[in-house]
Write a structure and sequence with these properties.
Shape of chain A: globular
Low-confidence stretches of chain B: 19-33
CATH superfamily of the largest domain in chain B: Periplasmic binding protein-like II
Strand content of chain A: under 5%
Largest sheet of chain A: none
CATH topology of the largest domain in chain B: D-Maltodextrin-Binding Protein, domain 2
Helix content of chain B: 40-55%
Structural class of chain A: mainly alpha
CATH architecture of the largest domain in chain A: Orthogonal Bundle
Structural class of chain B: alpha+beta
Oligomer: heterodimer
Distance between the termini of chain B: 30 Å
Radius of gyration of chain B: 22 Å
CATH architecture of the largest domain in chain B: 3-Layer(aba) Sandwich
CATH class of the largest domain in chain A: Mainly Alpha
CATH topology of the largest domain in chain A: MetI-like fold
Mean pLDDT of chain B: 89
Number of domains of chain B: 2
Order of helices and strands of chain A: HHHHHHHHHHHHHH
Largest sheet of chain B: 6 strands, mixed
CATH superfamily of the largest domain in chain A: MetI-like
């Protein structure tokens, strides 16, 4: 076989494989992105334009009227602020409680720590519906109904961030922790000064999960709040749908207003998301 | 759908936990009476009497309702202050109301959806409208209100709640497509057979879809009512015995449903989706000939569509003197646990909301039918009706609906669960993955189970 033949074989095989992979990924991306595209189009065009003109509507059908209608039907700005408050409080609380719990499960040696961690993992299997009533009674008895704190309180700790961070902390050589302790660092300083910086991608992953879960919460905020002053945007946009006949375009507009912050968050933090997930896999 | 399942699951759990406090009286002597206070309870109150109203009116309906509340507050400044809050769709509202009963924080008035009537009666936490009207003769005149709507909220001869917003299911038609299909006389669509024929003609001659409707059991129940068949047995739970099951798998109702399903399996109909948004989008785009939907669709169509449309009566398949659709909407339930001053204040609010002028304003903004029959006497309403043929059609249908147990609709606290379960079967039948017989049998079986479980939770 001549060197020319060998060169051709080495160059074509990887290119064909790359093209096939690219096409497959592109098709999956289209399938995933298509509903998002339709939602944005539905929000930006008049009712029926999508069905009439297909997925490339005419320029004349574009309008911002749906967003205006959505913004005037509900106290959008106020509910956005409440959502930001809920996300901030809940995420911060879950980060702190998760980090503290994960640290306790990994570094200090104590009896029953594996059992305790097992109990935390079991909570992941408990359906949310089964704890709504006890949470409602607890928050009501504390006089926190219709407050942002009441929305956040039952979710200030969660099993998944604890699990994520525990797995991340387990990957750090114990010697690193012992060296920090030998240098005089207490538990808190070791955790926030040494351990967490070493697990930044996984910690950011946990933050993302907590933030998205807090942003997307609907039934609990609806149940525990009575007025717009404490309501999140998810509850607000549900009001855009009439119980009997809804205006699809306005509902699309509301959905877009809610999904845009989460899209921005994921796009900005996707590097950490992938990094955090892959580190877990490689370990 | 996931949110609906969660809501129903939580509500079911809460109902079970309320069992010790309630009993199933639907079908026996329905209660909710309490002792109704008279006007002196409010006159003797000092300061401002604050009351709360929970409702499920979203979109433009919520805006119109809030406007009325604001007007009431202005007129009663210093005496009564109303705080009205949207609490989610009707199912979410009911779950939240149930939770509030457990924590003794129920609102003064809850604007509960139509199918909550059985549950609201069973939990016995409301004062009946009949007793409040008797104790306050100067306020709400129940006889001025729409008889079919009052019929819906009357259980065992006692009117339990005052209807606030009433809708009626209609057959909406794209007259441009019908004309292209050779149908110029829309009176032929007054029957189910006529509607099916028109849908087939549109599909065959125009290339567009012939029919759509929301995947909502409400429209299947209507097919039973307009066939002269009670959706639930016995007698829709309205004649002294609680409902024990549904009748959809037999009789004229089954025949009507089968004809509807044939439109889907033959490709003439397009699936409207669970919330109906897909069907509404397709209809407003001019791609569908006829559509079953509520009177509230008028608000969407008025915003502008590229074709001529008309609202026709819901198609029947029974003798017109005995049949008619069941009204939809919601009614105001006055809490027994509120103070007497709050109860009378709430009754004053109900009087305001059901007055001819309030109903005129509300109906014109939302597409709901005015609940007060005297609204039609207002000069401004007459002027409005002259320009709105669909509204005239709504009013005519409700006026012509005979008042009997069939058109009263089914009363059972399990209706929310029944509707939710029936949707899956409907969709399977539409998709052709299940035969009509099989789907209707499954609906009947699951409804029987749901009703039995509900009655068991309430201790019966």
């Amino acid at each position: 076989m001549s060197i020319f033949t060998k060169t051709r074989t080495r160059n074509t095989r990887p290119r064909t494989g790359t093209i096939v992979r690219f096409v497959a990924v592109l098709m999956i991306a289209v399938v995933i992105f298509f509903p998002v595209y339709v939602s944005f189009l539905g929000a930006l065009t008049s009712n029926g334009a999508l069905v009439r003109d297909g997925i490339f509507p005419k320029l004349a059908d574009f309008t911002l009227g749906n967003f205006r209608a959505a913004a005037t039907s509900i106290p959008l700005a106020q509910e956005y602020l409440v959502s930001v408050g809920v996300v901030t409080l809940q995420t911060l609380a879950q980060l702190v409680t998760g980090a503290l719990a994960a640290y306790a499960f990994v570094f200090p040696q104590w009896r029953w720590r594996k059992l305790a961690f097992g109990l935390v993992v079991i909570t992941l299997a408990i359906p949310g519906e089964s704890i709504v009533i006890p949470n409602y009674e607890l928050v009501s008895s504390l006089g926190l109904r219709n407050t942002v704190l009441g929305v956040v309180l039952p979710f200030m700790a969660a099993g998944y961030p604890i699990f994520l961070m525990r797995q991340a902390f387990s990957a750090i050589p114990r010697e690193v922790w012992e060296a920090a302790r030998l240098d005089g660092a207490g538990d808190i300083r070791a955790l926030f000064g040494i351990i967490i910086p070493l697990c930044r991608p996984q910690v950011i992953n946990a933050i993302l999960w907590s933030a998205l879960a807090a942003w997307n919460g609907f039934f609990w905020p609806l149940l525990i709040t009575d007025t717009a002053s404490a309501r999140t945007i998810q509850v607000g946009i549900s009001q855009l749908a009439s119980s009997e006949v809804g205006n699809p375009a306005i509902i699309f507009a509301g959905a877009v207003l809610v999904v845009v912050p989460t899209m921005i968050l994921v796009i900005v933090a996707q590097r950490f998301l992938v990094n955090g997930l892959s580190r877990g896999v490689l370990r | 759908m996931k949110k609906a399942v969660l809501t129903i699951a939580v509500a079911t759990a809460m109902v079970a936990s309320l069992a010790a406090c309630t009993s199933n009286t639907t079908g026996s002597d329905a209660g909710g009476s309490g002792s109704a206070p008279g006007a002196s309870a409010l006159k003797d109150a000092t300061g401002v009497t604050n009351i709360t109203v929970w409702h499920g009116l979203g979109a433009a309906n919520g805006v119109a309702f809030d406007k009325l509340i604001s007007q009431f507050n202005t007129e009663n400044k210093g005496r009564i202050n109303v705080s009205a809050t949207y609490q989610g769709a009707y199912a979410d509202l009911l779950a939240k109301y149930t939770a509030s009963l457990r924590s003794n924080s129920a609102p003064t008035i809850v604007l509960a959806g139509d199918i909550a009537t059985g549950y609201m009666t069973d939990v016995k936490q409301s004062i009946s409208a009949a007793s409040m009207a008797k104790a306050n003769p100067g306020d709400v005149k129940l006889n001025d209100l729409s008889a079919p709507a009052r019929n819906y909220y009357t259980v065992n001869g006692v009117e339990q709640a005052v209807p606030m917003n009433v809708s009626t299911p209609m057959l909406w038609v794209n007259t441009d497509l019908l004309t292209k299909a050779g149908i110029t006389d829309t009176s032929s669509l007054s029957t189910v057979d006529g509607m099916v024929a028109a849908a087939n003609a549109v599909a065959a001659k125009t290339g567009q879809k012939g029919f759509t409707m929301p995947d909502d059991d409400y429209y299947i129940e209507q097919l039973a009512a307009t066939a002269g068949q009670a959706f639930c047995s016995p007698d829709n739970g309205r004649s002294g015995k609680a409902a024990t099951g549904i009748t959809i798998s037999s009789g004229a109702a089954k025949t009507a449903v089968s004809k509807l399903v044939s439109l889907y399996t033959s490709g003439v109909a397009v699936d409207g989706g669970g919330a109906g948004s897909a069907g509404v989008s397709a209809f407003t785009a001019g791609k569908v000939g006829v559509m079953l939907n509520g009177s509230g669709l008028l608000g969407v169509l008025k915003a502008g569509v590229p074709f001529q449309y008309e609202a026709l009566p819901y198609p029947t398949s029974g003798s017109s003197s005995k049949v008619g659709p069941v009204t939809g909407g919601s009614a105001m339930w006055l809490s027994k646990s509120a103070t007497k001053a709050q109860q009378v204040a709430g009754w004053k609010l109900e009087t305001f909301l059901t007055s001819p002028t309030s109903q005129e304003q509300f109906s014109q903004a939302t597409g709901y039918i005015p609940i007060n029959n005297k609204t039609g006497d207002l000069a401004s309403q007459k002027k409005f009706l002259a320009t709105s043929a669909p509204t005239q059609a709504f009013l005519k249908q409700v006026k012509n609906t005979p008042v009997n147990t069939v058109t009263a609709g089914c009363v059972s606290g399990a209706m929310t669960n029944i509707r939710s379960a029936n949707v899956n079967q409907m969709q399977a039948a539409f998709a052709g993955s299940k035969s009509v017989d099989s789907a209707l049998s499954a609906m009947t079986a699951s409804a029987k189970t749901a009703i039995a479980q509900y009655r068991q939770q309430l201790g019966q």
